[in-house]
Each structure stands twice: as C-alpha cells, then as structure tokens.
Amino acid sequence: MFRNKLTITNNNPIFVKKLSKMILRKYFVYGVLGLSVFSCTPRQEINYMKDIESIALDNSVKNSRSTLQPGDQLVINVSAKDMDVVKPFNQNYSSSTTITQYSVPSSNNFPQQLPVSGPMYMVDTDWNIIFPQIGKINAREETVETFRTKLVDLISKYVKDPVVDVKLVNFKVSILGEVARPGQYIIPDGNTTLFGALGMAGDLTPFGLRKNVLIVRNVDGQFTQQRVDLTSAQFINSPYYYLKQNDMIYVQPNAVREKAARIDPNTGLYISVASVIASIALGVLALTRN
Description:
Strand 5 and strand 6 (135-138) form a beta hairpin. It contains seven helices and twelve strands.
C-alpha cells in the first residue's frame, strides 16, 4: 500500500542541505505571494454616493433664491416709533433666549458663532406660521424677503410704518469630500453661494476635482442633483450658484486620492512581517550551509 508521505532514503549531507534549501525557498515564495494578495486587495471606494446618478431625479430648480420650507425657523422682530404699540406682535420674545445662527464643526474656531435673539416661529408642514394678533400666515413659495414684505402689509393694518426684521436661523448645508473642514454649516440669513460655502469649509484640498462638484437638493420633497464645473464662469448663471436649505455638496477626490484609498492600511505591517520571515529564512539557510 502506498502512503502519502515523503521518505528520504539518501542520507548524503549535501543532498539533505539542498533539499532543505528547496523546501525553505518554496514556503518563502508561498508566504510572500500570500501577503501580496492580502495587501493588494481592493478597498471600498472613497466616493460616498456612487449611485447618486441613478436615484436622483432629473428636474432642476430654476430660481436662484431659496423659498421657505417646512421646518424652517424664523426669528421675527417688529418695531416702530412707539414700541409699546408693537409689543403684542413680539409676545413670545425672551431676552434670555439666543439662537446660534452661524456655526462650524467643533474641531476648529473659524468662522465665529453669531447669536440671534427674538421671537421664533417654525414653518409647519402646510407652510404656515401662527403669528400673534394676526393668526395663520402662509409662507409657501415665499422667500425671506417676500415674506417680510407680506408681514409688513399685514401689520400695517394695526401699526403705522412698522419695521419688520425676518431672519432664517436654521439654514444649513452639508459639505463633504475633499475640503479642508467637512461638516454641516448654518448660514447667516439663509443666503450664500456655493463659493461662499466652500470658503467656510476652508476651500477644496489639492486632491478635489474642481470640474465635477456634486450638489444634491431637496425642494418641496423633490430631489435634484447637479454636477458643476467651478473652473467655468458659466456656473454663475446656474440655479445651483445660490445654495438652498439642506443642500449637500460633495467634492469628489481625484485619481491619486482614490488610488491611495484602495491601498490596505495594513500594507506596512504586511511588508514588515514579510521582511521578518525573509530574515529568518535567510538565517536558516545560512545555518544549513555550516
């Protein structure tokens, strides 16, 4: 009966040394090949939203200014020559309550936070707010400026020459990808351009693709997406030049950054282990020669 076993019948010392060297070299080669396979395994791509092209809708928003949306928080202050007359329109004002209107990620201190005080109203799911003395006021398809004009007209029925100040205090955008300070930003007065937002995020890194910046937008429950070329002056005429509430900006990395992201972070460890194995194998080979 044959046995699956290697039997050495030649006891010649030279033959034994040659055989030992062959076996060590064989396992050394297998070990290096194995480490190479693990270290070269592709990693998940650095892109956050690879399938955004297939799921985003194909329509776009034409106007360049933001209209008020459900969930928007408005701070509304009414003043006049006689402040006693307008007190009923500022009923829920609390001087001890402030709202942070402008913020950045906590890991850095630029730009500064600016607190805003005053009566706050939230736009409900039907685009309404409940205002003192007047009641329900609809804000659908209104910008901050047109809504302020609407309030002036309504309050003028009770107060002569009222001054109305309206601030959108929770206008926020998310900036992700190849920028210096990615994060969520609250924009003063709800009015900024893409360049202004990127400036707050510290501008693009050298690895960011300036010709392929993605903007994802949600207006009235409708999602749109657009890729813009920051190097072209034509972008100023785009409806995406001015940002809107909850816009998401994603700066895609270039090929150099993507290639680096695919490299296993443990590659250095694998190379070190391979070096140790090689040193041991060479040491054993040196001993067998003696």
